[in-house]
Amino acid sequence: xxxxxxxxxxxxxxAAVVLFxxxxxxxxxxxxxxxxxxxxxxxxxxxxxxxxxxxWHAFYDYARGRGAGRSRLARRLxxxxxxxxxxxxxxxxxxxxYQAPEGASEWFKLHLPAGHWVVMExxxxxxxxxxxxxxxxQVILQRLGGGRSPSEGxxxxxxxxxxxxxxxxxxxxxxxxxxxxxxxx
Length: 185
What we know:
Elements: H1 6-22, H2 35-64, H3 69-99, H4 104-111, H5 113-128, H6 130-144, H7 152-184
Helix pairs in contact: 1-2, 2-3, 2-7, 3-6, 4-5, 5-7, 6-7
Transmembrane segments: 37-56, 77-98, 156-180
Keywords: Membrane, Transmembrane, Transmembrane helix
């Protein structure tokens, strides 16, 4: 028997995901030369946050030793790493316009130096750490995470790497939203 409000919860969740993914589309309506790159980067970053959160659910099954947990975690971790790479590629595409003369970097240095030096530079380097953490987790999972029950050390290291991946990604996502709103204001 289904829980009474399961369909409503699924509909609300689906609507939230659709609206969350439509936020970057607002970039296409704004001014600027890098609207397409901004929209693609925002969409890739939003999808990465969603898929990485979904990856955490697979890690929970894997850490508990459930049957299909390893294959599910490997598949979702691969998707997370692919989306992270796509996000970093589109970020580099945007960075060209950010550092250009008359770009957002100049505006931040004049009006909000802390916005550039602390938020942007910190965000840039922390966000780059998501890919090495994800790739390291995937390599460890492939090489050492097999078998019936993986060792506690392997599960611990994977948990730490996935935590670092998620925290670095969340810092980059949140600071990216802050930078966009500061420049738009």
